[in-house]
Design goal:
Pfam family, one: Methyltransf_25
Largest sheet: 7 strands, mixed
CATH class of the largest domain: Alpha Beta
Strand content: 25-35%
Number of helices: 8
Shape: globular
Keywords: Methyltransferase, Transferase
CATH superfamily of the largest domain: Vaccinia Virus protein VP39
GO molecular function: methyltransferase activity
Distance between the termini: 32 Å
CATH architecture of the largest domain: 3-Layer(aba) Sandwich
Organism: Streptomyces tuirus
Number of domains: 2
Structural class: alpha/beta
Order of helices and strands: HHEHEHEEHEHEEEEHEHE
Number of strands: 11
InterPro entries: Methyltransf_25, SAM-dependent_MTases_sf
Strand order of the largest sheet: 3-2-1-4-5-11-10
């Protein structure tokens, strides 16, 4: 992964990221509740190592967990801290690469890496490095929760785009439109694809168009599970959205006792 380019993508998106949701606060609560049910205990010490602007981290803090958030985007991590403070929550955040987590061994009960963040890492070497770091900072019998897009189905269907999402801004009532173009003309290796993220934002009766580009690895579920097993995780299982209430498939695994 070109870390600087991914950081730039999310730095640019940080101020507007909440606009991809019809109701960001409702999504925070819904995702936090779904992850809390998988954690299955009170007051866990949680690292969200791809916290973005705080959707999952704030949701888990609302459930009473002690959450630390890191993200490769300094602007996103800083916004997550502000959003948590605005809700009278404690959320420590820092800019950090998930391949080099700035924490001692065995620091956390649970590590969350959600919202298709891991596939920004474009090589097996980098994914292994990130998973090894997640395992390192977990306590014995610690819990790993990783969510990705449903790549097995997407690899089969090869969609060209996502449907446009049209939402109204809460304070102004103006509309925003968000969609993605997925360039399924693969890179030469057949494993990676480019994405263009479009946001149409109201601007004085006109539209202001923001286009941001990034690259992902379409990482199939079996391959990700194999890489997690190589990193030392056990009890690996994929849990689907219809079962968990979370919006993406979740790989659930643990460290050894």
């Amino acid at each position: 992964m070109a870390g600087t380019s991914v950081a730039h993508f999310y730095d640019e998106l940080a101020d507007d990221y909440h606009l991809i949701y019809a109701d960001w606060d409702a999504s925070i609560r819904r995702q936090g509740n779904a992850l809390d049910a998988l954690i299955g205990r009170d007051r866990a010490v949680v690292l969200d190592c791809s916290c973005g602007i705080g959707t999952q981290a704030i949701g888990l803090a609302l459930r009473g967990h002690g959450v630390t958030g890191t993200d490769i985007s300094p602007r996103a991590a800083a916004r997550a801290a502000r959003e948590a403070a605005d809700r009278s929550l404690s959320l420590r955040t820092a800019a950090a690469d998930m391949r080099r987590l700035p924490f001692p061994d065995g620091r956390f009960d649970t590590v969350v890496c959600a919202d298709n963040s891991l596939p920004h890492l474009l090589t097996e070497h980098d994914v292994r490095a990130a998973l090894a770091e997640m395992r390192r900072v977990l306590r014995p019998a610690g819990l790993l929760l990783v969510s990705t897009r449903p790549y097995d189905e997407l690899l089969r269907d090869r969609p060209a785009s996502t449907p446009p999402q049209v939402h109204r801004v809460a304070d102004s009532g103006e509309r925003t439109v968000t969609f993605q173009l997925w360039h399924w003309h693969w890179h030469d290796d057949g494993k990676h694809y480019d994405l263009e993220h479009f946001q149409l934002l109201p601007a004085g009766g006109e539209w202001r168009v923001q286009v941001r580009r990034t690259t992902y690895w379409a990482l199939a579920r079996d391959r990700l599970a194999d890489l997690a097993a190589e990193a030392g995780f056990i009890g690996l299982a994929w849990r689907m959205p219809q079962e968990t209430g979370f919006f993406q498939p979740l790989l659930v695994a643990r460290t050894g006792a």
